[in-house]
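Vacuolar protein sorting-associated protein 51 homolog, pasting as requested.
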Amino acid sequence: MAAGAAGPGPGSGPGDSPEGPEAEAPERRRKAHGMLKLYYGLSEGETAGRPPGSDPLDPTDLNGAHFDPEVYLDKLRRECPLAQLMDSETDMVRQIRALDSDMQTLVYENYNKFISATDTIRKMKNDFRKMEDEMDRLATNMAVITDFSARISATLQDRHERITKLAGVHALLRKLQFLFELPSCLTKCVELGAYGQAVRYQGRARAVLQQYQHLPSFRAIQDDCQVITARLAQQLRQRFREGGSGAPEQAECVELLLALGEPAEELCAEFLEHARGRLEAELRSLEAELGPSPPAPDVLEFTDHGGSGFVGGLCQVASAYQELFAAQGPAGAEKLAAFARELGGRYFALVERRLAQEQGSGDNSLLVRALDRFHRRLRAPGALLAAAGLAEAATEIVERVARERLGHHLQGLRAAFLGCLTDVRQALAAPRLAGKEGPGLAELLANVASSILSHIKASLAAVHLFTAKEVSFSNKPYFRGEFCSQGVREGLIVGFIRSMCQTAQSFCDSPGEKGGATPPALLLLLSRLCLDYETATISYILTLTDEQFLVQDQSPVTPVSTLCAEARETARRLLTHYVKVQGLVISQMLRKSVETRDWLSTLEPRNVRAVMKRVVEDTTAIDVQVGLLYEEGVRKAQSSDSSKRTFSVYSSSRQQGRYAPSYTPSAPMDTNLLSNIQKLFSERIDVFSPVEFNKVSVLTGIIKISLKTLLECVRLRTFGRFGLQQVQVDCHFLQLYLWRFVADEELVHLLLDEVVASAALRCPDPVPMEPSVVEVICERG
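Structure tokens follow.
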């Protein structure tokens, strides 16, 4: 059964003879199979389905080219049991059915292609048959044409040679006719003004006439042409010297004169002289626009006029000169460069004069546009006349104007800052004059900070126009490096911040100078403004500047930390000066209250003096004022009896209990010695200690200055009994209210103790008032 399925055809079996038609059929199929493999490019051993390591000559390989079914069946019968033979048969039948199915599918899918291919082959046979007939006819016709051409060439050979000779004679006669008619043609061209045509005629005949001038006829023609040419050259020179025509016409005249053989050196000098006249007229026109009588046009119109008039004319002159006098070499180029350098310098001077008139304006957009056009216009002459340095000079002018604009904006920022300070002064003074409540310090501080920041941003936006991508000079090294780093960052922003700090520090002068007229509230506001700059504003402004102006310069710049340190130092100096000024105001009240009173004849105290109440009121007002801008600060723990302590004659209650009972005016105890012993053991008070940035530190400094002044004034006076008691009452009143303003209440106690003790030392009859009486008077006051 397996042999029937795998055999090459019906009737083939193991007993058939290999000789006969049946044996030749497999051989024919193998040969056809080999031709197909050859057609599809398969090698002998490359058969589908064969394992890669099998022998291509194995007769038992079903997929091999040398497969022998008899050998395959013998091998299966010898080696395989019956079950495996049955399985092989089943597998082979399945494969045969699959191959039949695939073959049918292939035929069905490609049936239309097979039909189309058959029709195409049939048409190709017919078309190729017709094409072969047409090619045969074409070959016959080409042979006939070749025969006719050969016979015609043989017939016309002699005539062709004669025609060639006659054509040469005709051309020679035409040349001779041109030469004999040349004088009349030149005369006619000169009369009609066709100077270019006349010069071309002369150039065509010059070499021939020069070669055959030994012949009389040609000599006569040459003489006539020379006379006409001389007259032509004279007319061209006259036209050139009149100068009424433009630069292209004059360049044409020079070109024709050079073609006529005129000396180039002379023509070069005359050409530059005539060009100078035209360009100087343009310069005079520009200078007239700068005059005082007519209103000067805006800077953009001025640069447009100069660019189209002078710069355009200079470009025409330069290009024409280089075309006409290229044979002059380096000497001619140097003449042109010197010519352009001289007139260009005069043009640049006029441009700078006009640009100087724009320095007062606050808008940069029109100025930058004008500078952009000015710089663009000079690119062409800069490329034509590299030796003259026009482009470099134009760039220097633009850089100089940019630096001046930076200085202008710096002055504007300074003026804006001073204007803000003036507004603050007026706002602080107006409520007092009108008798009503004005804006608070916090609101004034916010207004000043926002106004200054807006002015800084506006200045940055204005100078950023110089580095815009559409501006022609923005890619220059200066505007990519030094302008951004040293100009904008250092010169404008850092310069303004330092100027602001210096202006603020100028208010810290001595009271006899500017500082005496400075409102203390302004000092406080400026100190907070500088502190805010140190905290955040400086970093923000410099970051904004670095982002807008990408610095490509490696020059050293001021670190943010340095500027912050300067701003913090300015804030510290202002706050310290504020403490001194406010302390001085209260000290003046206390000093006058002590110096203007007769302490020996004072009556028995019945109430607290009004100046002490005023001191407490002013201190409270200062506390409120400082609290608007600064935080509270840190205080030491306060005792529960701070407001109930009363003052004795001596500086402490222990000393009073120890020495008062035995004290009489004639007692031998030296009270100065007691005071000095007390000072040895008391804590030293630094009146002008550094002030911290908080309300408690500020008030502590003011109160220390005030009480120290009171102490020194008391030491210079002599007190009676009631005078001493009045001092005792006043100090107790101050102690009741001032201790809550300072960081350490012991500081107030020590200073007031010293005041009462000093008064007792200066009293001949030191009899203190009872503490209960003092408390009653102070509570009533």
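Note for the archive: The chain has 26 helices and no strands.
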